[in-house]
Amino acid sequence: MSKGGAKASQWLKSGYGSAEVGLVSMEVMLQVYLLELYVSAGLSPAWAGTALALAVVWDAVSDPVMGVLSDRTSASSARGKRLWYVLLGSPFMAVAFVYLFSPSATGGERSLFWQLLIWYLLLNTAITMVVVPYLALINDLSKDPKDRAGFFGWRLVFSGAGLIVGLAIPPLVAHYAGSSLESGKRQALLENRSESALWISGAGLLATVLAVATVWRAAGNARADTFAGGSKILDAFKSAMSSRGFRMVVAAFVCIAMGRAVNGSLALIFYKGTLQFTDQQVAMALIGLSLTVMAATPLWVRFGDKLGKLRLSVYGSLGLTVLTAVAYPLMPPQSVGPVLFVVVAGGVVASSVVLLEALFSDVVQDDGDASQLSLSGAYYGLWRTATKMARAGGLAVSGLFLWMIGFEEGGGPQTEEVYRSVAWAFGPGVALFFAAGTWVLWQTQKQGIIKEGEQQ
Known about the structure:
The protein has a single domain (16-446), classed as MFS general substrate transporter like domains (Growth Hormone, Chain: A), CATH 1.20.1250.20. It is mainly alpha-helical. Helices cover 80% and strands 0% of the residues.
């Protein structure tokens, strides 16, 4: 593993990670509110799931293309190879986000389907322009595996802040507007999500620009790994497929991403329907989860350096699997106490994902050094491709599941049988995906494929 160069400062790491405030707040709206919004507007769950899945599939295809384009951009510094794409994509991302969350209240199902599909396609393309080069910048700014873990730690800390922003804005907007978001209030829901998207898109644009300004000088001084030149898409694909470390780490991400997609798309239905929580109670529960993740992340980074990132990743994923499988189906309506316990325990084990992300950055560096190619952008693009394909599958599974159990579109009350089915899917159903990810990580450790940031 290449370890040359000075350690990055905490100011640089935190400034880099601050972009996650805006990016994650937008992601929260997409994962938690988007499916509910279009179903409430009159689109059937099956068609909504299909549109979301198609858009994410396109996003997955565009990611490695953007990564290779970034790698092959002729520039002597990391700034020239990465940051100009971030600045170009940010305003398009903000505009598309606002229009995506403003579905027509009078349009028919066909109109809603095309509005969802087209604007989600445009949004995902803009997000790809921002996120893929920005992720690749980590390996340009730091060659030391322990140092890079700090970048990912700050990303996860600010991700928690972004989750709070994304969850807090809709109920705050409703509060100041004096409107109710309870089931059946269709018009109020549509207006709330549209105004909330306007605020969050502004926060996303501002956070991204400020983060770029923080790393601008360091990126200008950092020499991107060019070797014999940037990789072509076929070069990157061949390198990835021949790398055992890449295959195993990405396989774990795929399993976990599918579980998170199902979890996120069913979250509001579970909390508001099965547990009979209000929007404010849902927001407070998820904000508590975010605060726990923010507090626990530095501990995972510290102990990962001492005890091993891969080993602790296995333990964290296993804990998340058991907790998810057992806790949710047993919760009675309005069970504030048990939810609080799961929020704290779940936040602690969920934050272990920072170690898995840091392991992936080690694989990126090792494979780039071995092949003498600049692979950072391509690898991070392929990583996002794999996880987004998994998320597309998870969204499609959620939509088809709701259709199969007889979920009635329009956002009104559902039957008790529907709510209990959602609880079982939200618990043991999601846990199956987490269990698969845990098994992959365990096999990776057992076979010695990755040893603490060093690919074999």
